[in-house]
Amino acid sequence: MKKLKMQSQNKYIGDDKMQKMLDHYHCEMPLEAVKMRFAGAVCSPNMELRPTDVISSLWPENREPRLQTKEEAELFFKFFMGLWDEIFEQVRHNEVRLPPYLPETSREYWRELCRRRSEQLEQGYVEGFWGGRSDLKISAGLAELIDSLSDLAALYLTLAGRLEKETNIENLIAAVKNTDKTVNRAISFIIENTVLPRMTEPHRQ
Hints:
By secondary structure, the protein is mostly helical. It has 7 helices and no strands.
């Protein structure tokens, strides 16, 4: 049995500093989507997928950061691996969840939240799970679950469009909250039934 994806024992620097690092290196993906991509990658059955592959995927091809010195490169990967370890532990304890929403009632907040949710789910978790491959051998049930997450990502965009046009938004806000619950349950089910059973060792190398 292969071990689960590599852990590095680096300490996470925290959300504020990590977002500043992403901004410094012109990463267009926001931190919450990066976290979900890492979560999807840790959950992926692709045992050849490495953290460095996932980190590189955060930038378009041939637009990865140019690291000028050995020290810069070491810090770059140290900080990213600290985040990887943080997400690894969330997966190991089945604590991967969408970021909580604020007690807001404004149309603009919920519309933007829907757009972020779609990105966190499709460009984040789903892309991380597939790891750039479309030929992973997975069960029909797991494939259906991953497809359902893509459908839910599309639903968020539909809700964002309706939030822009419709007058009464209370029902739409309730729909967003229910969709969040569905997403969290689906990811939890994937982890509980397909990831944790293969975590017979604490690390994946």
